[in-house]
């Protein structure tokens, strides 16, 4: 039975404090999210890892992603397990953790189409929200502050100049187009990439990771996040 406070809680209100970090590809959000989580001593979760793990499984099965009924059947039959171990998210599909294969060219080419499924995004909402049931965490992705945890007070939107993001992708050994990824993320019908109205905008183009994290810590303190005493960026 739910308590009165649980019944009255707005949709997407986490049971523990959640820092939501959104932004486009290669904006630097993953790097700063990891660093921030380490400084705060809480879990780091990359929501994109779940979509990539599902895509990895579909690609391995040779599924044609445009066949919606087959796509839904395949996902329903998957055993998707998300767990946090040593403050980091781990995802298994059918008992296997894909590891670095989630960054393969085949997954890179298909993950945006998979993530664009409104049916899948709705199906994964409770999966993501359960991660905050017994711990505080930093979660990053494309729609964390707008769809997954819209009620959290701790939101950031990390962006950077498209040319700088393109260079970052090349430095990471990625070959997909930033322009195409941006268009796919922003134009999809389900939870498109956008900045939440109450999210703090941070342009990482000319900032170091340490500078971005310091800004985040300052904002978190202002908004009442329980930042540990003495927490600082090395």
Structure overview:
This protein is α/β, with parallel strands linked by helices and 234 residues long. It has a single domain (14-222), classed as P-loop containing nucleotide triphosphate hydrolases (Rossmann fold). The chain has ten helices and seven strands. The protein has helices at 4-8, 29-40, 47-60, 68-77, 105-115, 118-130, 144-148, 162-171, 178-187, 209-222, and strands at 18-22, 43-46, 80-85, 88-93, 137-141, 154-159, 200-203. The strands form two sheets. It has a five-stranded parallel beta sheet. Strands 3-4 form a two-stranded antiparallel sheet. Strand 3 and strand 4 form a beta hairpin. Helix 3 (47-60) crosses helix 5. The termini are far apart. Mean pLDDT is 91; it is low at 1-8.
Number of strands: 7
Low-confidence stretches: 1-8
Order of helices and strands: HEHEHHEEHHEHEHHEH
Radius of gyration: 17 Å
Q: Examine the coordinates and then state which fold CATH places here, giving the name of the CATH topology.
A: Rossmann fold
Summed over residues and divided by their number, the pLDDT gives a mean of 91
Characterize the largest beta sheet: strand count, sense, and whether it forms a barrel: 5 strands, parallel
CATH superfamily: P-loop containing nucleotide triphosphate hydrolases
Estimated helix fraction: 40-55%
């Amino acid at each position: 039975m739910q308590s009165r406070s649980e019944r009255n809680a707005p949709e997407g209100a986490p049971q523990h404090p959640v820092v939501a970090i959104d932004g486009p590809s290669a904006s630097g959000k993953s790097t700063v999210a990891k660093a921030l989580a380490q400084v705060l001593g809480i879990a780091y979760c990359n929501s994109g890892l779940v979509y990539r793990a599902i895509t990895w499984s579909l690609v391995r099965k040779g599924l044609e992603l445009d066949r919606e009924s087959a796509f839904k059947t395949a996902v329903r039959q998957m055993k998707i397990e998300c767990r946090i171990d040593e403050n980091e998210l781990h995802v298994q599909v059918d008992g296997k953790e894909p590891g670095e294969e989630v960054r393969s060219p085949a997954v890179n080419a298909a993950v945006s189409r998979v993530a664009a499924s409104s049916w899948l995004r709705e199906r994964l909402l409770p999966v993501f929200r359960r991660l905050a049931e017994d711990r505080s965490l930093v979660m990053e992705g494309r729609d964390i502050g707008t769809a997954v945890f819209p009620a959290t007070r701790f939101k950031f939107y990390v962006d950077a100049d498209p040319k700088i993001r393109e260079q970052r992708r090349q430095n990471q050994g990625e070959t997909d187009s930033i322009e195409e990824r941006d268009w796919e993320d922003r134009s999809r019908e389900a939870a498109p990439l956008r900045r939440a109205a109450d999210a703090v905008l941070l342009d990482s183009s000319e900032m170091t990771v340490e500078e971005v994290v310091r800004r985040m810590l300052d904002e978190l303190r202002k908004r009442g996040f329980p930042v540990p005493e003495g927490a600082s960026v090395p």
